[in-house]
Amino acid sequence: MSTQTPSSTPPGDRIAKVLARAGVASRREAERMIEAGRVSVNGETIDSPALNVTDADRIAVDGKPLTAPEPARLWLYHKPAGRVTTARDELGRPTIFDDLPEEMPRVMSVGRLDLNSEGLLLLTNDGAIKRQLELPSTGWLRKYRVRIKGRPKDEDFEPLRKGISIDGERFQPMIVNLDRQQGANAWLTVGLREGKNREIRRAMEELGFSVNRLIRVSYGPFQLGNLKPGEVDELRRRVIRDQLGLEAGEIEGTATAKPRLRRGPRRGGKPGGKPGTAPEAGTGGKPQRKPAAKPDGRPGSKPGFKQRAKPGPRPQGKRPKRDT
After folding, report:
1. Dist. CA 58–CA 68, nearest whole Å
2. What is the value of pTM for the model shown?
3. How is 61-92 classified by DSSP, letter by letter?
């Protein structure tokens, strides 16, 4: 097999990258789809991902033409416990995709949370963003609220802070803070920069503690906040560009895409509101005006009531005659 030189490299992008960009699947999943004979280019089925394509090529997946990629989008999702992070589960368990709004496009999860874990999960329709956020080189800190059974002391977690090996697998140093004791359980805050399978649970078990609740509260700069279980909240394209360190044109389509929010609490208050201020109770977020003073100096009446001047006593007797 001859090796391509830079001068002989065909134009365009790898077919798996194009499929991932269009939100068909992650790049690895797209490669498996190609090897399974599910992808065709210009009417011919291909069986190798070693192919570059351009906008002029006609691509089809399972016989259906590949549509133009949507603008790259990113959502925050509060994963409930009891949901698996897969599109289909061989055991028939409910998945995170069963509860997403029907109007959402096809999305992929950034990393995973296991069946009994809950909290923040990032979803995207763009395979390139998914891959970038999952790369170990990204090194974003992920924070978890962890409840364990037992009465630990702070020094018990020193091995995790230094990094330990379990069954020959090396775990990078973790940030572990003992927050409080609550009956027979203790709450911790744990931070790590890698996402190995069941990493926190396995690490705690190595120290003799069992995890009975695990909630991811942040993934890099993205926070779970007040998002309720099962809710999703779409991030604005400006936030995506800023947090991922991308230029406006680097995420295809985002320069003109209009952001849309789905089923999530609005962040930052109502449009036009000043940050850090809360609406007054019962005003619906609108500032209350002070009652204006009346000409005689009396303050205005309460809303919903009108004050009318009471007529004075009518004079008795005949009215005086006017001078003529």
Report:
1. 11
2. 0.64
3. ETTEEPPPPPPP-EEEEEEPTT-BSSSS-TT-
Taking the alpha carbons at both ends of the chain, their separation in whole angstroms is: 127
DSSP state of 28: H
| Domain architecture of the chain: domains with CATH | 10-65 (3.10.290.10), 74-136+223-244 (3.30.70.580), 141-219 (3.30.70.1560)
Low-confidence ranges of the chain (pLDDT < 50): 1-7, 248-262, 264-311, 315, 320, 324
Token pair in block for residue 129: 């963003």
Angle between helix 237-244 and helix 127-134 axes, rounded to 10 deg: 40
Q: Kind of pairing, strands 118-124 and 210-219? A: parallel
The tokens for 19 are: 């499929």
Q: Which of 300, 280, 278 is closest to 291 using CA atoms? A: 300
The rounded distance, in Å, linking the Cα atoms of 172 and 192 is: 8
309: which 2 tokens?
């001047």
What are the residue numbers of the active site?
114
